Amino acid sequence: MRKSAVIKLVKYVILITVCTVLMSPVVVAILGSMRTTGDFTERPFGLPTEGIYWQNYTNVLKNEMFWKSFQSSVLITLGVTLLVTSLASCLAFVFSRISFLGRGLLFNILSFGLLFPLVVAILPIFIQVRSLGLINSLWGVILPLVAFGLPGSVIILRGFFVAIPSELEDAAYIDGCTTIGFFWHILFPMARPAITAVATIQVIAAWNEYFLPLVVLNDSNKWPLPLGIMQFRGQYGADTAGIMAYVTILIIPAVIFYLFMERHIVTGLTGGELKG
Amino acid sequence: MSATRFRVLPRNTQPHAASINWNQRFDKLFTIALFTIPGFSIFLTFLLIPITLTARYSLYEWKGFGDLTSENYAGLGNYQRLYEHDVFHQAVEHTFIIMGLSLLIQLPLALGLALLVGRGELPGRRFFRTLLFIPYVFSEVITALIWQYVYHPRNGLANYTFEKIIPGFESIPWLGEREYVLYAIFAVLTWKFFGFHMLLYMAGLQSIPKDLEEAARIDGAGEWNVLRFVTLPLMGSTIRLTVFLSILGSFQQFVIVNVMTNGGPFYASEVMGTYLYKFGIQRFNLGYGSAIAVVLFFTTLIFSILYQRFVMRAEQEIAR
After folding, report:
1. I need a labelling partner for A15 at 20 to 30 A (CA). Which of A56, B65, B180, B309 fits?
2. Is A178 in Cβ contact with B47 (below 8 Å)?
3. Tens of pLDDT along A212-267?
């Protein structure tokens, strides 16, 4: 009994140390955002003893560019998430439920896409987006993100669709359901956890994307938040506390979203293997 | 449209049967087309076709304007320039350093933490698990901005902490010194990405049947031996997967390096992603950039195929 108590203590010490090291940069950034830049540079790790210096936040929130970036981010995220979830569900349905000649080939071609991460393929995409005249258009960001989001999403969804018993499908067809009807009324609702997982992963990926809009969008009025914050830093480089306020404004919704969607994020990343 | 049961339709229907089932066949074809064409056209237009075309662009001295003509045809000239460019050599070397460090430090760290919080009865493990995964949720830009402040040459968190712990420690400009910058960036990459690997390990841990470990314990094996001879071998497939993803991930680093140092000082933190951006896209050398992209594709492709063939397959054979 003695020994197990010591082991437990050691485990806690390790975990608390790791978590402290892990969280301290974030905590310092948030504390910094609550004070003036002068105070922040003088004693970087102090608490906001003179009350929270809200001006850092109002500066960001009154900035017109912040709201434009916010709008772009919302549009890109919505577009990517809706398109990936709907198109990937359709593809996964065909690949799991309808057998036809060439199905395996098509599926392999799609899976092949997993080998090309967006960063590695950025130049070909840039050339293609340019030749289609989509430079400076949000579609030039959305459509490539969809293309790169599809392979992984289809593979996750297909796994879930295959697991749904075929007796259910037979029953539906006997009751006069069409293929599309089966997909829409039975499969889609049943696979909702998997679809939520795929959607959640896409929301995070699209919301955070930096490289593609950097290359595709020249007009700073259309820049999403990750580029917006870089522009803000370019303009107010000396205002460290202000930048930390911008960072905090972006962190808080991300953490809240994560806490709410934790289960789905985990499902999406591990293909549903992690329980409890 | 009539009710159909596609799965039970025979592959080669006789001619007369085909005419009877025409309606059903139409329904099936229609569904396949409706469900695959939109997704596939986006996939082809924005992924497969551009990637294929790159191979052609890479043979031209092309600034992105005008057609590809025999005049600006460069043969393998772009590849030769790339091969001779010492900055590219540095970028490759740095990419491999990051890869090696990830395998040696980041993955064992993730595995150790997964063993602590992935299962068992430790009270509060769920809380720790949530906390440990939080950095993975932040965007790379946010991560880079926060850490740029941590590495501030005068009063950043890193220097401040070391000054408190180590007496006589002198502040280091972490991102400004050639010898430190790559390791400083590696620390950020670990901070950001270990949570993802930890998650995969936790999933792997849960699929291990508990009785096997229990049996070893009953036979008198100590905790360390249970871990070494039972748990870790059973997690083989997960470990192989994370090694694979980690290596592929090292080829893809761009945002954190670009925001924190932009490859500097003097190319000391240049990686393949930033090299491609700087020398291909920013300078609009699209032909040259295509050559870089092709080299990247082939590196990842060959690696993936070899890894799947020799490492992942070995695992399947063991399973048999």
Report:
1. B180
2. no
3. 999 999 988 999 999 999 988 888 877 888 888 999 999 888 889 888 888 777 77
Domain B77-319 homologous superfamily, CATH: MetI-like (1.10.3720.10)
Q: Does B23 touch chain A (CB under 8 A)?
A: no
Query: CB-side exposure of B196: number of CA atoms within 13 Å?
Result: 18
| Residue numbers in A near B253 (CB within 8 A) | 119
**Could you tell me the two tokens for B110?**
């993730």
Instruction: Show Cβ contacts of residue A245 under 8 Å, excluding neighbours closer than 6 positions.
Output: A33, A56, A57, A59, A60
What HEC string does A146-213 produce? Answer: HHHHHHHHHHHHHHHHHHCCHHHHHHHHHCCCCHHHHHHHHHHHHCHHHHHHHHHHHHHHHHHCCHHH
Task: Give the three-state DSSP class for B308.
Answer: helix
Residue with tokens 């220097």: B159
Chosen from B92, B142, B226, B278 to mutate, greatest number of chain A CBs within 10 A? B142
pTM above 0.95, yes or no: no
Cis omega (within 30 of 0) on the bond before B265? Answer: yes
Question: Per CATH, is A63-235 categorized as 3.30.70.260?
Answer: no
- What are the tens digits of pLDDT across the range A133-155? 999 999 999 999 999 999 989 98
CA dihedral of residues B59, B62, B68, B69 (deg, nearest 10) = -90
**pLDDT for res B13:** 45
Domain boundaries, chain B: 77-319
Check CB contact under 8 Å for A144 and B253.
Answer: no
CB distance A144–B204 less than 8 Å?
no
A187 vs A168: CA distance, rounded Å: 9
Question: Alpha-carbon distance B318 to B320, whole Å?
Answer: 5
What residue ranges do the domains of chain A occupy? 2-42, 63-235
Q: How far is CA B102 from CA B192, B251, B259, B260, in A?
A: 12, 12, 20, 19
Mean pLDDT of chain B: 84
